[in-house]
């Protein structure tokens, strides 16, 4: 697969990318178990189901300390909605041998591997990250938006593999500084959203190199961003030393990097985030200049209105605003406020993911959603076939979620009310910046 060509400056290679503290973070935050069907067809009674909890382990290979051994059953340690066509989250048997001293690639990007379909790395809870594309090589952050749950994840249609395409606030709390949240299959670490100390803003695509990473204090890592490619779209490290289930891993994907055939226009090339001396990214599809910043909001709403399970919500907002001549910050905010007040937390989630997510200086939005994650899911999901049952939870975070939700209900509030002020404030600030 051919990628755009440009030179890359050399970077330090052969260093240990994950220290012992990072390795220790691979654990399940909750001991809650999932009630899963066991080959019982479409009608499963409680007696046909097994209770399975999250399991994840990352250790140094005892026979060669330059490798890490990773195993996971792919069961998340947080609640989830079954929004995808494959509505059941199933147990997996992930087993990888990953280099602890990743080899940083230099030279031309045409020699790099675009990320494969399926798992490209793993979060600290054992749930895999997928690349930024759907099966048609379209931007999954946009075109699979309607099929994501409130943790911004879903199971696929082949085996019920639960996965993230974008950052999930249910992985870790966003506190301002980028936290270590996972490992890519080339061995380089993955960090969550955080503040760029040079700009005071959350890391964005323009801060990263083509693959989705950057060098900080002499060490390369991938950083999650709100825009494409979200996690990573190509491997900056060698994958020839990675093994899956005992066999050499084949990392090259079928989707062209920064695919233009299906690009909705938000997939501009990364900018200045690579090692020092790296030139700017190659020319490619650029964002369309919008004289009226509210226009991009309405373009998004019009797309969302075509999606079955949220069409009435986005359509209602469009109808409240009325003609294009009435499109303004004030009219849009008022229309959204009306819908949110009507209790539409699911629509809040969908717009929140695309436009807001971690695009706030203090990351308050992501943190608040993380705090309320379980409660919101319990109150807004419909048709859920896989439900996390908290049993003997050792995490104060989950119990606090329930207490917060109960308190809101007693006071006549709901999950969407808690998000609304942040949602409206960020909606305006993100687009105008």
TrEMBL record:
TM region(s), chain numbering: none
Ranges where the record places region Disordered: 271-292, 392-415
Domain YHYH: 95-193
Domain of life: Eukaryota
Entries under Pfam families matching the protein: YHYH (PF14240)
PANTHER family: UNCHARACTERIZED PROTEIN YBCL-RELATED, YHYH DOMAIN-CONTAINING PROTEIN
Protein name per the record: YHYH domain-containing protein
């Amino acid at each position: 697969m051919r990628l755009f060509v440009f030179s890359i400056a050399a970077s330090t290679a052969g260093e240990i990318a994950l220290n012992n503290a990072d390795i220790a973070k691979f654990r399940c935050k909750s001991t809650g178990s999932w009630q899963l069907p066991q080959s019982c067809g479409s009608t499963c009674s409680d007696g046909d189901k097994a209770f399975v909890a999250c399991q994840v382990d990352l250790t140094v290979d005892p026979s060669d300390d330059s490798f890490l051994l990773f195993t996971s059953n792919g069961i998340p340690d947080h609640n989830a909605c079954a929004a995808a066509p494959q509505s059941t989250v199933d147990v997996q048997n992930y087993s990888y041998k990953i280099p602890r001293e990743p080899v940083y690639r230099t030279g031309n990007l045409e020699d790099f591997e675009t990320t494969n379909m399926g798992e490209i790395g793993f979060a600290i809870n054992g749930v895999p990250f997928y690349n930024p594309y759907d099966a048609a090589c379209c931007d999954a952050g946009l075109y699979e938006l309607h099929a994501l749950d409130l943790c911004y994840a879903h199971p696929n249609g082949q085996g019920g593999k639960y996965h993230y395409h974008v950052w999930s606030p249910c992985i870790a709390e966003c506190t301002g500084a980028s936290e270590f949240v996972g490992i890519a299959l080339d061995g380089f670490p993955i960090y969550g959203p955080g503040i760029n100390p040079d700009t005071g803003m959350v890391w964005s695509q323009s801060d990263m190199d083509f693959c989705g990473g950057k060098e900080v204090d002499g060490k390369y890592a991938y950083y999650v961003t709100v825009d494409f490619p979200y996690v990573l779209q190509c491997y900056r490290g060698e994958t020839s030393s990675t093994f899956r289930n005992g066999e050499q891993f084949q990392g090259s994907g079928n989707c062209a990097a920064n695919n233009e055939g299906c690009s909705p226009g938000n997939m501009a090339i990364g900018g200045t985030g690579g090692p020092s001396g790296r030139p700017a990214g190659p020319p490619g599809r650029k964002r369309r200049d919008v004289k009226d910043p509210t226009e991009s909001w309405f373009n998004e709403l019009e797309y969302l209105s075509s999606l079955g399970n949220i069409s009435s919500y986005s359509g209602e907002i469009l109808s409240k605003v009325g003609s294009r001549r009435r499109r303004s910050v004030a009219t849009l905010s008022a229309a959204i406020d009306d819908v949110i007040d009507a209790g539409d937390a699911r629509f809040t989630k969908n717009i929140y993911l695309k436009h807001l997510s971690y695009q706030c200086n203090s990351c308050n939005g992501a943190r608040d959603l993380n705090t309320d994650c379980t409660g919101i899911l319990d109150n807004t999901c419909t048709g859920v076939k896989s439900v996390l049952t908290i049993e003997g939870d050792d995490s104060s975070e989950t119990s606090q979620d329930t207490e917060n939700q109960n308190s809101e209900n007693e006071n006549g509030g709901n999950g969407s009310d808690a998000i609304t002020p942040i949602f409206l404030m960020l909606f305006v600030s993100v687009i105008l910046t």
